[in-house]
Amino acid sequence: MLNIEEKLKSLPDKPGVYIMKNENNRIIYVGKAINLKNRVRQYFQTSATKSPKVQAMVENIRDFEYIITSNELEALILECNLIKKHRPRYNVMLRDDKHYPYIKVTLNESFPRVLKVREIKKDGAKYFGPYTDTKAVNQTIKLISKIFPIRSCSKNIEKIAGKERPCLNAHINQCIAPCTGKVSKEEYDKLVDSVLLFLEGKQQELLSELEMKMKKYAENLDFEKAAELRDQIEAVKKINEKQIIISSRMEDQDVIAFAEAGELVCAQVFFVRGGKLIGRETFFLSDIGKSDEGEIISSFIKQFYNKALYIPKFILVSNDFEEIELIEEWLGSKKGSKVTIVCPKRGDRRKLVEMARNNAEENLRLEMEKVEKEKRNSMAVNELAGILGIEDRKIIRIEAFDISNIQGVDNVASMIVFENGKPAKKHYRRFRIRGVEGQDDYGSMREILWRRFTHGIEERKKIDEEDGDYTRGKFSQFPELIMIDGGLGHVNAASQVLDELNLSIPICGMVKDQRHRTRGIVYEGKEISLSSRSQAFKLVALIQDEAHRFAIEYHRSLREKKLEKSVLDEIEGVGQKRKQALFKHFKSIEAIKKASVEELAQVSGMNKKVAENIYNFFNK
Predict the structure, then answer these.
(1) 397-561 — its CATH code?
(2) CA distance 192 to 206
């Protein structure tokens, strides 16, 4: 293989894309050039003007390739596709853009649905997005089902039409039930057309069509259909009222602005349709190094519109950049009509850009706070590992266990999970103690640890036979550290279980002071005090409080369920309040059964007559 110097000599004076690789033959940078020979040579020339990022990249280049194109526009398109595919280390990248969701309208089906998806396919469906806020996507789909009752099931409507009864969604007016065969395809398609207008932000056009249809139904005396459309019109109007008119031009435009702090850049995109702000998305860019503003804006626009499914006529940006004309040409070819990129200097358009910039700055501030919190969480976990002397183990997952009961009644346990120093609530689990009678915390701890890890071992065996992905299981992910709410006795009980199962996972206890507040930890037979100012102490206290809260909540819910339905309900004079008082006083049904009339009468709110009724019910 030719060395880099020799390859530089043979570069052509033509447009194309160049691909930089490191010693592992991994692509670390993709760029385009109107003249490959001049552009690529610049990287290897001695120059004090190179940014630190470019210098770092060049130091890692061990080889490069290039692809000749017919013109610069072709080079730009190829560059976009290669960056999307390889996500090179030194290109400015949208952070985790591959995870952004889309809304899909399945126009490839006879009776289309509205779905949330993560991937675009060439399947004849229509996609909207990408969106950065999954919650907003879910809310939008839910709103659509309320306003436009199209189906959500995946049944083959053409096969089952007329053979099925309406489901619950039909009964609550969130589906017009094409499965019954009483809805024509034409009628259903009109509903889907309304959904498309809604998702495209064309509320005024949608309202005009709905109002026209409503009048026709009313004229034909079909007042039921007219009423349905009236309700849809009212719902759309309410949404329309919430959308702010921010442009008197009444045109479609995207507004893009940036905020930067250190290595983090936030891009804010406002979507203006018909002069109204119908939505916005926030993106974060990574690996910017010391990239200039022009490169950041250019990189973002290329990546965003390479995946965007709608391109407006106008795009407003916060700064000019070198490639504006080329990118306009590219976007115009994608849209099929002219696209203009404008950096406004004054007037309403400049105000729009400033509004987007202000929002970008606010979102950047919130993101930096989040990043700072994650750093503190990581510091806390590392500090705790250092205190325990297990720095060689990278602690990602911590599982904590707590027991809850009242005088040995309704024994329950909680298992909470922290990942990277913060709660992972989707992994929380609750247990009812089955094999331990009375108040035996050590026995209860042994039982739940045994159940938790035997479940995990069994799951792992099954997963190993398939794909080895332990994240799929309920218990197959094992922690790097176990924390027990309690002292040495609790830790010893837990350790016995792990020894029997041949598992090697560090276990520490979380001990409290006389005020029931976190005092320190027990590890390898010794109690270790923690400074209340340390990050490790704050993490341990948070884990201990969370494990206790989760266990108490479960215990309380079981007691409330027991109160809701009880044999006491059959006794004359015993209502909800007396039932609660009896359980509070005696703790269990068994204790109530054994009580004398005099003991029963001592319960708050009880009189002798009801006490006799209770006694006679259990003893005669």
Answers:
(1) 3.30.420.340
(2) 12
Parse the chain into domains and list their residue ranges. 4-91, 99-200, 253-367, 397-561, 565-619
Fold category of 4-91 in CATH: GIY-YIG endonuclease (3.40.1440)
Q: Which residue has the higher pLDDT, 116 or 213?
A: 116
Question: Average pLDDT of 374-403?
Answer: 88
Report the distance separating Cα 421 and Cα 472, nearest Å. Answer: 21
- Burial class of 470 by CB neighbour count within 10 A (0 to 12, 13 to 18, 19+): middle
Question: Using CB atoms within 10 A of its CB, is residue 335 exposed (0-12), middle (13-18) or buried (19+)?
Answer: middle
pLDDT above 70 for 243: no
User: Which tokens is 76 given?
Assistant: 């730009």
Residue 393's nearest CA partner among 479, 522, 499, 473 is: 479
Q: What token pair was written down for 294?
A: 């022009």
Most confident range, picked from 270-284, 327-341, 582-596: 327-341
Top pLDDT among 591 and 508 is at 508
What's the 3-state SS for 495-537? HHHHHHCCCCCCEEEEEECCCCCEEEEEECCEEEECCCCCHHH
Each residue's pLDDT tens digit, 143-181:
777 777 788 787 877 777 777 777 777 767 778 777 877
Q: Comparing 4-91 with 397-561, is the CATH topology the same?
A: no
Question: Considering the domain 565-619 in this protein, what is its CATH number?
Answer: 1.10.150.20
- Decide if pLDDT at 407 tops 60: no
Q: Which of 201, 373, 182 is nearest to 272 (CA)?
A: 201
- How far are the Cα atoms of 106, 119, 131, 355, 425 from residue 99, in angstroms, in the given order? 20, 9, 10, 27, 21
Per-residue pLDDT at 1: 40
Residue 420 phi, psi dihedral angles, 5° rounding:
55, 35
Q: What is the CATH topology of the domain spanning 253-367?
A: Nucleotidyltransferase; domain 5 (3.30.420)
| Mean pLDDT for the chain overall | 82
Closest CA to 393 of 475, 505, 293, 483: 505
Is the CB of residue 277 less than 8 Å from the CB of residue 246?
A: yes
pLDDT at site 406: 59
